Every structure is written in structure tokens, then in C-alpha cells.
Amino acid sequence: MTRGVLLICQHFVPYTPSVGGVARVVYLSRFLVANGINTTVLSSDGVNYGDFGFSKNLAGVNVTYLRDPLKSSVQSSLRIINKPTTRHKGFFMSILRISKSILNRLVIPDLGLLMVYKYYKAASKLIESGSIDTVFVSTPPHSMQLVGGFLKWKFGNKITLIADYRDSWNTSTIFAPVGPVSGFFSRKMEKFSLARADIVTFVSEPMISKLDKMFPDLYLVEKGLLVMNGFAGDPCSFTIPKFEDPIRIGYFGMADDDPNGYRDVEPLLNLTSTAVRSGLNIKLFFYGTLRLSHLNIADYPYVEICEPIAHSDVHLFMQSMDYLLLLHTNPKNSDEVVTGKLFDYLQARRPIICYSPEDMEAARIIKKFGLGVWADIQSTDQAIEVLQGLKFNHYPVLQDEQIISTFSRDGQYLKILERLRDNH
Length: 424
Description:
Elements: E1 4-8, H1 23-34, E2 38-44, E3 62-66, H2 69-81, H3 89-106, H4 116-128, E4 134-139, H5 144-155, E5 160-165, H6 180-196, E6 199-202, H7 205-214, H8 220-223, E7 224-226, E8 247-252, E9 255-256, H9 266-277, E10 282-287, E11 290-291, E12 303-305, H10 314-318, E13 323-327, H11 340-348, E14 352-356, H12 361-369, E15 372-376, H13 380-388, H14 401-405, H15 409-423
Parallel strand pairs: 1-2, 1-4, 2-3, 4-5, 5-6, 6-7, 8-10, 8-13, 9-11, 10-12, 13-14, 14-15
């Protein structure tokens, strides 16, 4: 039985501006404590952004924060620039972006490298206390995986090392350093870390196959364990969609009309215009922030921009829809994308329309389990055909509470406990 788990992550509440970057480790730490496992988090300080309501999930979790001057400095600069009263905001943002880009080129694989030794020393002391036998390193920033590699190099079989990938490292154009020399050293670092990991957890199926292809001598498929992010809590009670006219399609979250972004609504609005002209009775509801720079929403009378809703009521509004929409418009690296919105929608137990490139991992999951439909963002004809069939589709899997519960965070984290039992 596991004596104790040390979770290493450079971002943790309250020193992070984003819920998405910390939810996985927050809910994992809660799950471990609930299963009787002593749990310690080792993270960095920074600007205090508040706990996002997560404090109730951290009862019984021991948290140690290391002084992280660079992280604090970057976060403070961003906070000043983003103040409404900041003059010359665009200029300062450009300077900060250029400075960060230069530093990122000089420090491989990322700026977190400057904190690796401090994390290694602090983690070593915690492990030497005798209450920890499992180390779980969750990234990005990917430099933190080096901490796990060094700890395993020092403690050997005294610890089980889990390398947790929320995003790919060198197999992704987003995080892989540019240039042959920096790329070479970055891959060496990743291989060093992965070679010492006992278990490699990842949020999306394509991650492990790409890693295995890059490092075939490490046999990573044998170490790999798919642990998706999942939804927090229990699934909602199932209610039957009405599928009356108009068909109500809800989008929950941020979107914009940036053609270079990944949630550009313009293709969606153009598709819906074509569908409405062909005789389909459809209405789109946007809940969240919709930033439009060149589109006029008045040109789309079948679109309704809704008032913000409390988080506690979000699933009630989701269940008032016939379908819930996932939108991903950039095919670059879309093969790994499993947005957290997918699991929120599954918790609401509503069929999903995934409007995306075909290789998006969320689309593959939806098709595999019969959770909704996939509409090709690169083919208007295929997407129109999908919309025409919305009323006539049935999704019995959404009524199966046992299957839906496997998509919960606890259902996913249970895999980690089972693998740890096997390792011990």
C-alpha cells in the first residue's frame, strides 16, 4: 500500500491565474486524501490570484511553496499590464513577449529549468522524512520532469515515479524548442526523465503513441496509462432531449473571431447560416465570453448571446439544450485535444456536436462511445449533412450512469491507484 504521495507542479492555487492549469492536481490530491493516502504538494509561490473555490478540496493536503522570483516577476508584470488603467498596454505587452521569447530560447526547455535544483533539494528532504514512496510530477512546464528524473536517480526503487503529461513536450510544436541544437538537448532531457519514470500518465491517447515513436527504446507503451481529466462530482440525472423546433445548441465557454485562434466562431456562424437557408430550424446559444473584432452578431438572427450564469447553475442550463457544442478550429496539434468542456458536457448528459478537424481526440472519443456527432470543420457538405440528422439520432450511452461515471475525475484517478497497487 502506498505510504504517501508527493505531487510536484510549478503551478498550484492560489499562485496561478488559470483554473485549467491546476484542476487536475487539485482534484487528484483530494482523491488521494479521500482514499487514505498521505498527500503533499510541492509548488511555487507567485502572485496570489485566489483559490477559485478550491479550498474545500484541499482539506488534509499538505502544501509546500518554494520561493520562485522569476515566476512572481512575470505574473506581477502581466497583472500590471492587464490593468484597465495601464497606459501603452500594447507596447509593454510587446516588450514582455519579446523578453520572454528571448529567455525561452536561451533556457531549454523552459524557464522552470531555473527552479529544478531548488525543487530537487526540497523534494529530497520530504522523501527522506520516510512518509513518501510515490512521486507524481505533473507538467507543463516540462522542466519539472527533470526533478522527477533526478529524484529517481537518487532514490532508485525507494520511490515510484509517475511522469504526468497534461501536454506533450518535444512531440508538440507548441512546446518543442525551435532549432536543431536546442531541440537535441530538449529531447535528451525528456528521454532522461522518461527513462526513469515507472509510470507515464497522459490525458490524451495520441500522446503515448507519439512518445513511443520518438523514444522506441524506452518501451513507453508498457509504462503508459491514459488518465483523462474527467468531470468533478457525480453525473447529472438524465433527462430526454426534446428535439423540438428550433433545435437548441448551446456553447459554454470563451470564443472569438480570431482566424489564427482555435475557437474562431466565424466558420460556425457561416455553417449555421447555410443550414438555416437550407431549411433547418436551428438556434445557437452562447454562454460565456464572446469576443468579436470584425463580425456583427446582429447579422446572425439565429444566435443568442446569453447573460453569464453562476457555476452552480451551469449544468441546469446545459440540460435545457438539445445539443452541446465543442468548437476547435485550428488543425495544428488538434490530434491531442480533449478539452475539459467535453467532460462538463458529459456530466450534463447531453449529446455533443464536435465541430473540429477529424483527427481531434475529443471527436474520436465522441464517435467511439456514441456520445454525439462529429461535424467536419473542413467540409461544409459533411457538416450540413450532420446537422440535418440531429433530430433522428439516439444516444443510449448517455443513459448509462456506469459508463458516464468512468469519465469522472475519480473514475480516471482510480486507474492510478490500481497501477500503484500493481507496482507495490
